[in-house]
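job 3f2a | input accepted
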Amino acid sequence: MLISTRGRYALRVLIDLAEHSDGGYVPMKEIAERQEISLKYLERILPVLTKNGIIGGLQGKSGGYRLLVHPEEIKIGDILRLTEGDLAPVACLECGAKPCRRMSECRTYPMWSEFYKMINGFFDERTLGDIVGERRCESRGAELIARRNAPEE
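job 3f2a | predicted structure (153 res):
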């Protein structure tokens, strides 16, 4: 399984909005510059997030995008399924797949099924808030270490 650029960039955009919006709208150009993502590519990702009610957009001078859902309520698994589709490692586990005629004798099906549950469980246990919070904790930790190691005046 490989998460595409689309899925990774969607997460980066959402993290950027969580860290820089302060309740207001963030211009797409600013997101593109900070995240080093082309505007053209963002124009393909943002509609998916907007259509699904995760972000909202406003056109005009004070326009841009902002989160409509609190970061702690946005599961990473939901974002990846929106951008990547099903996270199934094999075709027989994809949502809506025709039942495999070999499933009853397939020696690998239990392994793939367990792996699929692990993938979904892993990403569904994590939220955007967890990722943003981890970064804030790392920053605070680095700041405390720097203060502790700074020469006294």
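job 3f2a | Helices lie at 5-20, 28-35, 39-51, 76-84, 109-124, 128-149.
job 3f2a | closed
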